[in-house]
Design goal:
Chain lengths: 450, 450
């Protein structure tokens, strides 16, 4: 292999201690999802190109697969790498519908690929965690509340900074615009979505020019979009704008139920808001929508989002409505790891290094390691029978907290952080629970504890 | 989304219950590797094409990535999908050497991609589990024993049929051929490797024609290749062939140490053999080599393999020797799942379905679920307030063993397999340990238990 290796821009790779953090985050998310009865699936990373490329913005970011040397096979299907987990999930549901029970509750944690310009929080390969419920023909609204509450709980258990779930409802917006009499409701939604890039007056102008609104209608659209409260008081504030519409009523009731359902329990660091300017660009949302923001990392834009789609998938005869939410594992973790907000406590699983007195006695050290492993203590045997001082430094460099010595007087284990050394039996000794496995060290936790 | 979804040949996808089996296998492998102090890494799935394509057999199977629409960027690096986990690991070691401690012990469980013709056990996307130890400049031989023993232990813990580790040593073969005076040792190794496809006499002919051996030398090469024993008695058998050579001596001692080291403990279903015809085609092995076979699935050829490479990676100044072994997770599991040898006990994590008496009382059912989850019981709330009989059938169809009812007389939980229904407190009730999570059901286990 040749010299000079440079990182590939947009394809971040984690060193062992950081990877331990990512694994713990993924394990924690999975634990919560499974406690709520969501089953894990993985889809293949490729899809037929015609399923991915739908003429949208994303198309130019799709990676296409080709064989280096095309063999005798002529008509190999054109394949592309999936750019999210929703498109492959929809295809999975259609392909395997006969073998699934509906409502089908699944979570999926996999990398996705987008050929976009790399920047902080934006990568070409990055991991997403999606949780969705999909029904056959129908999917009761209470599943909206359920799936959002699951993600609130899952993220509340993570060692990350405070997160804010900002909810809205497409029916609420559409009903309001319709009740108000805005001529082009779709254009209006698309225009209001620009509020985070353009000033209010500019958006008002666009509502007039692009959506056919009167200046007074535009003003009330903006008034709606400025409503942002941590409880259900938005209902009265919207009513005060004087618009009545059946769809608006439905949207208000749904959004209130989501806010109430997600606020029910005490949370550690996740808060919930109704934010009536959240629209989410994608056209297929039809009810609940959500975006998730991380405290101090507003520059990343949302670190997650999702909503209700009345037609996640359809095979012509059967329609599959769904509701789900996605969390950007790489998008949030990689900046936190880079900033030192999160770190792994050590780069190796080993809690103990078994010292080797001489190469002849390596089998005895192996036997001690086997005894420790038999009751679940991760450990490794020193690579060389160097002087004990050097073996201790080996443990130090690897972040291993304990070194095990065997001498004429029997077994002893040393905590190399304190220097304390005690007699120990390999059949029963275990480190304190906190030392057993690598942990996630969170700067915010440390600060809170001070 | 359109109709008519057909599976993509070579890209198998697992239904939820089968995926639960795969997850448990991956978790079990990870547990063993971590108990032995191996740290997990993941590498990005793409590598620069010039690092993957080295003019070998594999080149024509490499998938190359291209953007659907090339944008303004002109000189995007040519990227290919990795076809194993060794090439990316070697690159990872070179790229991050300054941040790693050597010997670096890592495991890696990821999919790889090969555009080969799909057949049983051969897929275009498949998951491998690799465990390796890599040193800087030097790597003591005892690590060969260590890494092989770790994989023996890891596979012994899996719910799969009996597995056989068949070991050999390149030094042994090379030293034997050299001591025997075979002119072209490399050609001889390559020829002997054909013994599983060609009869002995044909291989003997090729040894004469391609490796320049005399008929008598060819006969002794074949005699060496037929030695296959479950212990270290091969040493005497080789000595009896009357060849002496320093490298042969080294190889014999190493192979004996590996066989002894891997046989030391009692195993459930993994056996170990010295099989002196194992050569492994790849040229970079320099000592220990191993192939792993699965009982009753010899048609899959090996389900794993690996060995020692004195130059896993090099940056010109520093060389990184390594030793490792890879297990084909998909290659072994997918046929076992297809044949019903392995199955998941249920397709959902939920152990309990909380019945809903009426939609009005759904929040009460939610509260029961929350109480169960708080002490680690995975559960879900019934999707509709149908008649109880229908809710029980919902649980049945999903494979959920318990249904929770709340009535005027308090809480009761029913084991729907036995019909037994008992009073229960949501704050403390838990199912028997065996029912808590989906399990791997192994037909071989069942047969053994009968």
């Amino acid at each position: 292999m040749s010299a000079k290796i440079r990182p590939l821009s947009g394809f971040p790779e984690l060193l062992p201690a950081a990877r331990a953090v990512e694994r713990e985050v993924i394990a924690s998310l999975s634990r919560t999802f499974e406690l709520h009865g969501f089953t894990n699936i993985e889809t293949r990373v490729v899809e037929p190109l015609d399923r991915l490329a739908k003429g949208g913005e994303i198309d130019k970011e799709i990676y296409v697969l080709q064989r280096l040397q095309q063999g005798g096979e002529t008509s190999e299907a054109e394949l592309g790498m999936h750019f999210d987990l929703t498109v492959p999930f929809a295809r999975y549901v259609l392909e395997h519908a006969g073998h699934l029970e509906f409502p089908f509750r699944r979570f999926q944690i996999q990398p996705v690929w987008r050929g976009e310009r790399p920047q902080e929080g934006r990568y070409r390969q990055f991991t997403q965690a999606d949780v969705d419920i999909v029904g056959r023909d129908v999917l009761d609204f209470h599943h909206d509340v359920e799936v959002m509450r699951v993600m609130v709980e899952a993220l509340d258990a993570l060692p990350v900074p405070a997160l804010s779930f900002q909810f809205n409802n497409r029916k609420l917006i559409q009903g309001f615009y319709r009740g108000l009499g805005v001529p082009d409701v779709t254009a209006a939604i698309r225009t209001i979505d620009k509020l985070d890039k353009l000033p209010g007056e500019k958006v008002a102008e666009l509502l007039v020019s692009d959506a056919g609104a009167t200046p007074e209608q535009a003003e009330r659209c903006l008034a709606l979009a400025t409503i942002r409260v941590p409880d259900t008081s938005f209902v009265e504030q919207v009513r005060a704008l004087g618009v009545t519409d059946d769809l608006l009523d439905e949207g208000l009731a749904e959004l209130a139920a989501v806010i109430e359902g997600c606020s029910a329990a005490e949370r550690r660091h996740v808060s919930v808001e109704a934010n009536l300017r959240i629209a989410r660009g994608l056209d297929y949302y039809t009810g609940t929508v959500v975006e998730i923001f991380m405290d101090g990392y507003e520059r990343l834009k949302s670190v997650g989002g999702g909503g209700r789609y009345d037609a996640l998938a359809s095979d012509g005869r059967t329609t599959y409505p769904g509701v789900g939410v996605s969390f950007g594992v790489s998008r949030s973790l990689i900046p936190l790891l880079a900033d030192g907000v999160l770190a792994g406590s050590r780069p190796v699983p080993s809690a103990v290094l078994i010292a080797v007195t001489s190469e002849d006695s390596r089998p005895e050290s192996d036997a001690i390691a086997a005894a420790l492993r038999a009751h679940g203590v991760p450990c490794e045997v020193a690579p060389t029978a160097a002087k004990f001082g050097k073996q201790i430094r080996t443990a130090e460099r690897r972040g291993i907290p304990y070194v095990w010595f065997t001498g004429e007087t029997g077994h002893q284990v040393k905590d190399i952080r304190t220097g304390e050394q005690v007699d120990a039996d390999p059949a029963t000794w275990a480190p304190p629970h906190d030392d057993l496995r690598p942990k996630v060290v969170s700067r915010t936790d440390q600060e809170q504890n001070q």
